[in-house]
From TrEMBL:
<dbReference type="Pfam" id="PF03331">
    <property type="entry name" value="LpxC"/>
</dbReference>
<dbReference type="InterPro" id="IPR004463">
    <property type="entry name" value="UDP-acyl_GlcNac_deAcase"/>
</dbReference>
<keyword id="KW-0443">Lipid metabolism</keyword>
<comment type="function">
    <text>Catalyzes the hydrolysis of UDP-3-O-myristoyl-N-acetylglucosamine to form UDP-3-O-myristoylglucosamine and acetate, the committed step in lipid A biosynthesis.</text>
</comment>
<keyword id="KW-0441">Lipid A biosynthesis</keyword>
<keyword id="KW-0444">Lipid biosynthesis</keyword>
<keyword id="KW-0862">Zinc</keyword>
<keyword id="KW-0479">Metal-binding</keyword>
<dbReference type="GO" id="GO:0009245">
    <property type="term" value="P:lipid A biosynthetic process"/>
</dbReference>
<dbReference type="InterPro" id="IPR015870">
    <property type="entry name" value="UDP-acyl_N-AcGlcN_deAcase_N"/>
</dbReference>
<dbReference type="InterPro" id="IPR011334">
    <property type="entry name" value="UDP-acyl_GlcNac_deAcase_C"/>
</dbReference>
<dbReference type="GO" id="GO:0016020">
    <property type="term" value="C:membrane"/>
</dbReference>
<protein>
    <recommendedName>
        <fullName>UDP-3-O-acyl-N-acetylglucosamine deacetylase</fullName>
        <ecNumber>3.5.1.108</ecNumber>
    </recommendedName>
</protein>
<comment type="pathway">
    <text>Glycolipid biosynthesis; lipid IV(A) biosynthesis; lipid IV(A) from (3R)-3-hydroxytetradecanoyl-[acyl-carrier-protein] and UDP-N-acetyl-alpha-D-glucosamine: step 2/6.</text>
</comment>
<dbReference type="GO" id="GO:0046872">
    <property type="term" value="F:metal ion binding"/>
</dbReference>
<dbReference type="GO" id="GO:0103117">
    <property type="term" value="F:UDP-3-O-acyl-N-acetylglucosamine deacetylase activity"/>
</dbReference>
<dbReference type="InterPro" id="IPR020568">
    <property type="entry name" value="Ribosomal_Su5_D2-typ_SF"/>
</dbReference>
Amino acid sequence: MISGHGLHTGAPSWVRLYREAGPVRFRRGGATIPAHVDFVVDTRRSTTLGTAGGRVATVEHLLAALYASGWWEGLVIEVSADELPILDGSAAPWLELLGDLGPPPPPPQGLVVENAFSLRHAHSTLRVHPGPARLCAEIHFAHPAIGKQRWCGGPQRFGELLEARTFGFLSDLEALRAQGLATAASLQNAIVYGSEGPLSPLRFPDEPVRHKALDALGDLYLLGRPLLGCVEVIRGSHSAHVAFAQALLREAMLLSLRPS
C-alpha cells in the first residue's frame, strides 16, 4: 500500500494493488472503473476516469509505470479517495510498489500501426506512423529555463521517464488554486519555476520534457494494449492525448493486432 495526498484536491489518499484475473481496473468503494480511454471523464490538468458509480483522478503517473513495466492485465487498483496521491510528483514510487507484486502476466497482443495518422488538438499536434514502438515528445515554453526540449525512446527506455516530476510555474499557482487545482502543490511533489528558474534542483537537465513524455505514456496506456508504432507528441496535453487515443481506436484501418 502507498499513501499521500491528491495534488489537486489535497485530500488524503491511499492505493493498494493486488493481482486478480481480468483487465486492469480501479476499484473505489463499490465502483469498478476500467483503465480504458472509453472511461475518461475529465482531462483538466490531469486524467480522470469514471463511471456512474464513482471516479478517480490523476491516474496518469501510475498508468505510465504500468506501461513501462509491462502490466496490461491481471491487476486491481484499490483507491480510497477521488484522486490518487501525487507522492513525489513522478511515477517512480508506483514502479516500486508494482515491484512488490512480482512479474506481470504475459502482455496481450499489441496494436500495430498500419497507416500514418495525425491529429491537431488546440495547441497540440500528435502523429503516428508505422515502425518500431517509439515515443517522441517535444515541448515549447517561453520560460528561458525550459524553452524547447525533445525526448525520444523506445520501450527499453521508458523507464528513464519515471523519475521525472510534474512541473509548473509560481506565477500560475494562485490562479490554479482559485480553480480548486494544485491545492497540495509544493517543492516536495513538483518542480516549481520562478522567474529565474526552478526553485529546487532538477533530477535531469531535460526533466520537463521527460515528464511530458511520461504523461503521454500514461494516457496512451488507456488504449488497453501496447501501441506498436512511432508516436510523436508536440506540445501535448491530457485532452490531446485522450482525443488521439480515441481517434486511433475509431479508425479501423489504422491498427491491427499482433503479439507484443
